[in-house]
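Q&A log
Question type: sequence-to-structure
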Amino acid sequence: MKKFIFKAAALCCALSLSACTSKKAVSVTPPDGSLDKCELRFSWWGGDDRHEATLKTIDLWSKKHPDITITPEYGGWDGWTEKVTAQMKGGTEPDIMQINYDWLITMSPDGKGFYDLDSLSGTLDLSGFDEDTLSFGRADGKLNAVTVSLSGRGLFYNSEAYSAIGADYPRTWSDLIALGESFGSHDAYPLDLDIQSGGTAWYLAVVYIQQKTGRQFITLDGELGFTQEDIRDALDFYKLLEDNHVIRTVKTRTDEDGNAALYQSSEFIGEKVAGVLEWGSAVGKYEAVLPKGVLEAGPLLAGENGNNSGWMIKPSLLYAVSGHTKYPDEAAAFMDLLLNDEECAKILGTTRGIPASRKASSALEKSGALTGLSKESQDILNETDTITISPYMELSRMKSFYNTAIESVSYGTADTEAAAEQMYRSVTEYLEKIKNEDPNLP
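Response status: OK
Response body:
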């Protein structure tokens, strides 16, 4: 991620975010006597590894602040955006929330949807964050959220499944396509793309075309960078993966997995699916269902010339405080524990990626816990000329356009030319509307 500082600054401008003053160390988390006795709700999504670690941090908080109860609300990613959107519209959202990158556009375009964290400096210490990282959480000049970690999707493989057929992890797109035949003879697949996570299949196709053309699918300021022909080429590439037995068709995945996420499916656990594309900050849920050490990080795929650009990074998630909370100082104090507390950092480990907070990452490094697939994935990304994902690409409505195109091509209800024409029109129209009207458009 050699160009991260420039990209973060560009994003700050693209979202009409203003620069903030340099943070100085502050005395945070006042004695219990200066915090009110109350109950706070904290919501997040994730896999079991994240849930278990987060519940332990709530227990840690309870020991430090027995008069302030933290009520957890958590679940999987599927449907989570819709749930929180409804809560925000009804003013019933939790006091502290784990939020996604694009939610600042949809839930706080004017910076008023979440609490301005700059006003809570007495209980929230931001001295361990650089301004470029903080800029991701600014909306209309207000610090609405704090980046927990930076992450990108990586490729992770079942080492036993690959060893069983004597295959090496692919390094180029051609290597990946060639593996389809080898795995197909064993009724298995070298890779699969989780249709439950929203946009995963399209993500890989986008990386391929970005690498091939040097154009970004959607720019940081919300402009469509792909031509209609680029979109068709991306859909052609996706269909190539299906046709060559690299990944399962949408129908096959649905028939075999039902509504289960890929990491919960018998096909992945049973080694019929030998590879996944996943965020480094969330890969723990895949690792947890396999024997220890079986899942390994592989190289990011490159062209035949070795060019592996086009891969993307973003804030994996952020923490925000509700603009309606009755207890902002108490909420900020709990967020401070999540972000900066040394003991808490050891409990959470890398279940939310490598911490962006220098205090938390230093605590993990000192304890020898800054290891594992999240760290390996981050190291691989650090050696890659990555692109910062546009938050517009992450919008739920946009993902519905991607999935519609992928499904129509997979089921054969439309050819790639027709599907590309429809996606190009839908994406162009929605980007225009969302920038000029209401980001919560249906």
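Response note: DSSP finds 18 helices and ten strands in the chain.
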